[in-house]
Write a structure and sequence with these properties.
Layout: E1 3-6, E2 12-15, H1 30-52, E3 56-68, E4 76-88, H2 92-106, H3 108-113, E5 118-127
Parallel strand pairs: 4-5
Antiparallel strand pairs: 1-2, 3-4
Length: about 130
């Protein structure tokens, strides 16, 4: 139940199933990879948008928590994105705007997942 995927950019991603399903727990589950990719997609957007807004951003972490349907297909039904944005003199309204733009316009992954999941967002700013 271990799988290797080669991406379009030539990188390898390993995935595995849960032990009770025949996997060996050596890598993330495919749906975990979907969620991680979505977090990376939106964090990338937020950093770019804040840089273009002239903000002195030093870091961006996003933690996703989710719920899935109980029956197959076990799609995501709720996803919360919590951002911790680090920088100097960051303006809360610009951070909020960057998150909103990512989720409404730029992040293809979260826009796709929004078809089945209720999305919520929160953030905090840490002065560096």
């Amino acid at each position: 139940m271990s799988f290797m995927a080669e991406t379009g950019s030539g990188h390898i991603v390993m995935m595995d199933g849960a032990p009770e399903g025949g996997g060996q727990n050596l890598a993330p589950r495919p749906m975990e990879v979907v969620l991680a990719g979505t977090g990376g997609c939106t964090a990338y957007d937020v950093v770019l948008i804040l840089r273009k807004s002239g903000q002195d951003i030093r870091g961006c972490e996003v933690t996703l928590t989710s719920e899935r349907a109980e029956k197959d297909p076990k799609v995501f039904t709720k996803i919360n994105f919590h951002f911790v944005v680090t920088g100097r003199g960051l303006k809360a309204n610009l951070v909020e705007r960057a998150i909103k733009l990512s989720h409404e316009k730029y992040c293809s992954a979260s826009i796709m997942l929004e078809k089945t999941a209720e999305m919520t967002h929160s953030f905090e700013i840490v002065e560096d």
